[in-house]
Specification:
Distance between the termini: 57 Å
Largest sheet: 6 strands, antiparallel
Radius of gyration: 19 Å
Structural class: alpha+beta
Helix content: 40-55%
Number of domains: 2
Shape: elongated
Number of strands: 6
Length: 217
């Protein structure tokens, strides 16, 4: 099936941005870029195309928007020990952004809201803008999480993790503490996570606690 003009323009834009990301250690596969930190975490950048246009009578401003002709740049950090504990299998060779649990969007970092970029025909100018946002905002977002210790430090400072509620963030902190060999703290965090949220989440925490060799009251 022939590519749409929109897809071709996004290809051209991504080529410009790849020239910025590749020297920084990112490798590309499709719409996604990966690099692995020295601490073993995986950072992902993904270009998400807006959905195919829907009829005007299906668009409800503020509720159901049409994102056709726009795109988002998704940022994610995969925590391998969390992935392996939950999925019970090794981390894939190449990580798709939706498997990351620490996430944000470049547009959100730039504008303070979930902003999708307009795919204009002036690709060089748009690419320059994106690279600027990556350099000023995207890379600093990634630099907060070079290793597991930094993730725990962020959790301790904020009580959560980006894109996560308190219960989910506490559970991930518990898995990381276990991975780092701090069984006592892992037990404490699991108990805290178990006290948060609905019954289904508490049952899930109990399952993971048992998998890690902990018992919850």
């Amino acid at each position: 099936m022939p590519k749409s003009e929109f897809a071709k323009n996004l290809d051209a834009l991504q080529t410009h941005v790849t020239a910025f990301l590749k020297p920084l250690g990112f490798r590309k596969k499709g719409r996604t870029h990966n690099r692995t930190t020295e601490g073993g975490l995986v950072q992902a950048v993904n270009f998400q195309m807006g959905e195919y246009p829907i009829g005007e009578h299906y668009v409800i401003p503020g509720i159901r928007e049409s994102f056709y002709g726009r795109f988002a740049v998704n940022l994610g950090v995969l925590l391998p020990c969390v992935y392996e504990t939950e999925w019970q299998k090794p981390v894939p060779e190449f990580t798709q952004e939706h498997f990351c649990t620490i996430r944000n969007r470049l547009g959100t970092l730039a504008f303070g809201t979930d902003n999708w970029f307009e795919l204009t025909s002036d690709i060089p100018t748009l690419a320059t803008t994106l690279v600027h946002f990556f350099d000023e905002l995207g890379l600093p977002f990634f630099e907060q999480f070079p290793d597991y210790h930094s993730v725990l430090a962020y959790y301790d400072a904020h009580g959560d993790l980006p894109f996560q509620n308190q219960g989910r963030a506490t559970l991930e902190a518990a898995i990381i503490a276990h991975h780092l060999g701090d069984a006592h703290r892992s037990q404490q965090l699991l108990a805290k996570a178990h006290s948060i949220g609905l019954k289904g989440f508490r049952q899930y925490v109990s399952t993971l606690a048992h998998r890690l060799g902990h018992q919850l009251a």
